[in-house]
Amino acid sequence: MPATSVKNPAGPFTGLLVIDLTHVLNGPFGTTILSDLGARVVKIEPPGHGDDTRTYGPFVGDQSLYFSFVNRGKESVVLNLKDPADRDIFLNMVRQADVLAENFRPGTMQHLGFSYEELAEINPRLIYASSSGFGQTGPLAHFAAYDTIIQAMSGIMDETGFADGPPTRVGTSLADLCGGTFMFCGIASALYAREKTGKGAHVDVAMFDATLAFLEHGFMSYVATGAAPTRIGNRHPFMAPFDVFETGDKHIVICCGNDHLFAQLCNALGLPGLATDARFLTNSDRIAHQAALKDALQSALKAHLSEYWQSVLHEAGVPVAPLLNVAEAAQLPQTLARNMLIEAGGVQMPGNPVKISGYDDPKVRVGAPSLNQHGDALRREFAAHAQAANVSA
Amino acid sequence: MPATSVKNPAGPFTGLLVIDLTHVLNGPFGTTILSDLGARVVKIEPPGHGDDTRTYGPFVGDQSLYFSFVNRGKESVVLNLKDPADRDIFLNMVRQADVLAENFRPGTMQHLGFSYEELAEINPRLIYASSSGFGQTGPLAHFAAYDTIIQAMSGIMDETGFADGPPTRVGTSLADLCGGTFMFCGIASALYAREKTGKGAHVDVAMFDATLAFLEHGFMSYVATGAAPTRIGNRHPFMAPFDVFETGDKHIVICCGNDHLFAQLCNALGLPGLATDARFLTNSDRIAHQAALKDALQSALKAHLSEYWQSVLHEAGVPVAPLLNVAEAAQLPQTLARNMLIEAGGVQMPGNPVKISGYDDPKVRVGAPSLNQHGDALRREFAAHAQAANVSA
Questions:
Q1: What are the residue boundaries of the structural domains of chain A, listed by start?
Q2: Which residue among A51, A219, B260, B337 sits deepest, i.e. has the most Cβ atoms within 10 Å of its Cβ?
Q3: Residue A15: other Cβ atoms inside 10 A
Q4: Residue B67 touches partner A, C-beta closer than 8 Å
């Protein structure tokens, strides 16, 4: 491994070289999984301020959290991909790389002369992954594709929220993150296949496709009825009671998947009559009368605090949980025990959810690079190889 | 390939045998990606009604869509894992399998005598993937883990919704689907590593960890301020205007990432004065006065229908999109062009978002199996191998 390299812990992808042309959120999220799992990821940034997200808040000191969260464990070099000398360095990297990932608007890489077909010619083993809003094909391939646009067009906003409220954006950039994760899925699959075929491939993932794949219940309702589903708030589409409830202080969730648990719940609440009420006898009955059921449960639950009900219901064997905010979730003992609150470059962030035996999953990881932090070393490394290649050619 | 096999299209995982002990949603979603990408996936179901979701609605005829959506392209055999003869068949499968996936509550596989350590002894190349609510380790490992509970405890519900409204469940089983997707990520990564090491591994993925990894903006706010983020509805945390708006009929989204686009928007709306209003000069100004800005834009937008504004703003180069329901999203020409509306077993469902060159991505795929559909053939296949193994031993 070159002396310039970031020392990521060993993982399944140790020894692989990834050229990372991705920017903002979607692509970088996917390539971060590669660096978490051991790959060497070289981020190529444009001259000027580099990846746009370096200028996005929130900041800790002069460090953009937005940038840091999805670029940990990577190296950075600034290259002007329109400059002949920099293009040579880039092409030398391509000759040695295992993976190239990009999330430009479709057509940009072709315009630069770096289409899959062109790069596969100089490195037939290259896995070339493109992530974009709507994919490389189809009538919307060139449509502007922010996360909010994909959430709006995929149906996920329309199925999130309450029946009497507006469509609701998922409170995280779900389309970006799904797209990045499925891009990783494609890269890992193509890397496996390359071991059998010796050949690279073009992976083409769309945030839109990825979000459609996550629609689940709403899509089922559409197929069953031909109509769009209605928003159902926090309750479960097919089970009741299975919802968020207010207590004397905080929200809790209660999940009764069967009649037995419902009877346990009624007893624990001091409402044994509910379990024998004709409206609530079976799950279907409870779904049919879910509003009345919710009112009855809600009245009882408001009489005590969240901690009280958690303890009483837990004791009764009824699935119950607190509704936590992000700060509480981040500090949960479970989060810490699973190394899901890590530190990288002095900043706390969510850890790596892919735990594989035989590899370390450290609590402290290498942070995101400053702009061009590894520029000199990377330019030397890939210029030298260029000369060697020319000599031997 | 045995004559019993489902004929999935060739993919990167063609030739691999996956034992699928997963049930309900989370695990089956992950193993469906494997079958979509060419693996042979044998679903082992318990005696009785098999996977619980076979009894869940919605139904088309007597086919559960819930079950069909996440079990396409798989084979089904009913095995009683407590019965000695069935255990022998299962262990013969394990000897030949590449992957075993399970999403029982932690401890169940150990109780059956099928822990990773035990199965690795008879097949050291086995990738053994466990998906669960909170993971195999930590104080909450045995806590009940429905999707709603994970959404509640991970912070995602608290960061979804409006500032003046309640925490809001993402309108899809996000925690289940994230967990299943990251389980696939772990399996694909471990399969790649096995090509180098010759060894299997235990993949341990938690729905909770997976959902934490998707928190993004809320987690950043927490790290920056030490406090939980407030809900911000449909708007963007760092850019304005970047939100959902009502028109004369339907909702649209408008995404202006910079001052130039904002000026274009104001001109197109016939409100050029807004762009020079001191409250709205820069993105920071617009964020600081986003409520006033939204009111001003909203009034203008309500004067015409959605179609009109889409056309006018598109013409002006302003990123704009319709807010579609699931039915509209499913039938979008882009969805069809990308094969994201497929048919499997006579039922429409979302397609495979992982597009890799060199492999077919058919519009019609093999459907989910009926209970024990491949039972006789699978029992014969793996009993025969058992005898062969005994003879040669």
A1: 17-215+336-392, 242-246+251-322
A2: A219
A3: 13
A4: no
| Domain A17-215+336-392 class, CATH top level | alpha beta
ipTM confidence score: 0.96
Provide the pLDDT for residue A57.
86
Assign domain B17-215+339-392 to its CATH superfamily: Crotonobetainyl-coa:carnitine coa-transferase; domain 1 (3.40.50.10540)
Q: How far apart are alpha carbons A380 and A195 in whole angstroms?
A: 30
* Amino acid making up residue B46: P
Active site residue A236: yes
Q: Which two tokens stand for residue A233?
A: 């708030």
Tracing tokens 């762009």 back to the chain, one arrives at B275
CB A251 within 8 A of CB A245: yes
Return residues 276-315 of B near A (CB < 8 Å): none
A149: helix, strand or coil: helix
- Summarised one tens digit per residue, pLDDT across range B173-204 is 999 999 999 999 999 999 999 999 999 999 99
What DSSP state is assigned to residue B152?
A: H
Nearest one of B10, B54, B15, B18 to B36, comparing CA atoms? B10
CA distance A203 to A208: 15
Q: Give the bridge partners for B49, in sequence order.
A: none
DSSP symbols for B169-197? --SS-HHHHHHHHHHHHHHHHHHHHHHHH
DSSP per residue, B213-257: HT-THHHHHHHHHSSPPPP-TTS-SS-SSEEEEE-SSSEEEEE--
Q: Chain B: give the shortest CA distance to residue A18, in Å.
A: 15
pLDDT in tens, A56-88: 889 999 999 999 999 999 999 999 999 999 999
- Hey, of A127, A143, A182, A355, which one would you mutate to test binding to chain B, going by the most B CBs within 10 A of its CB? A355
Measure Cα distances from B205 to A71, B132, B185, B187, B299 in Å.
22, 7, 10, 10, 48
Please check whether residue B71 touches A, CB under 8 A: no
Please identify, in words, the CATH class of the domain defined by B242-327: alpha beta
Q: What is the distance between the alpha carbons of residues A45 and A51, in angstroms, rounded to a whole number?
A: 6
Residues 6+ apart with CB under 8 A from A277: none
Which pair of structure tokens corresponds to residue A23? 């920017």
Q: CA of A87: how far to CAs of A27, A81, A386, B293, in Å? A: 21, 5, 12, 44
Farthest-apart Cα atoms in chain A, separation: 88
Q: Which residues pair with B321 in a beta bridge?
A: B253
A139 and B334 in contact (C-beta within 8 Å)?
yes
Helix (H, G, I), strand (E, B) or coil at A45: strand
Smallest CA–CA separation between A390 and chain B, in Å?
31
Q: Is A174 part of the contact surface with chain B (CB cutoff 8 Å)?
A: yes
Fold held by A242-246+251-322: formyl-coa transferase, domain 3 (3.30.1540)
Helices (DSSP H) in chain B: which residue ranges? 26-36, 65-69, 84-96, 108-111, 116-122, 147-154, 174-197, 207-213, 217-225, 259-268, 272-276, 283-288, 290-301, 306-315, 326-330, 333-337, 375-392
Q: What is the per-residue pLDDT across A261-309, written as a single tens digit (0 to 9) for each? A: 999 999 999 999 999 999 999 999 999 999 999 999 999 999 999 999 9
The residue from A111, A217, A236, A304 that is catalytic is: A236
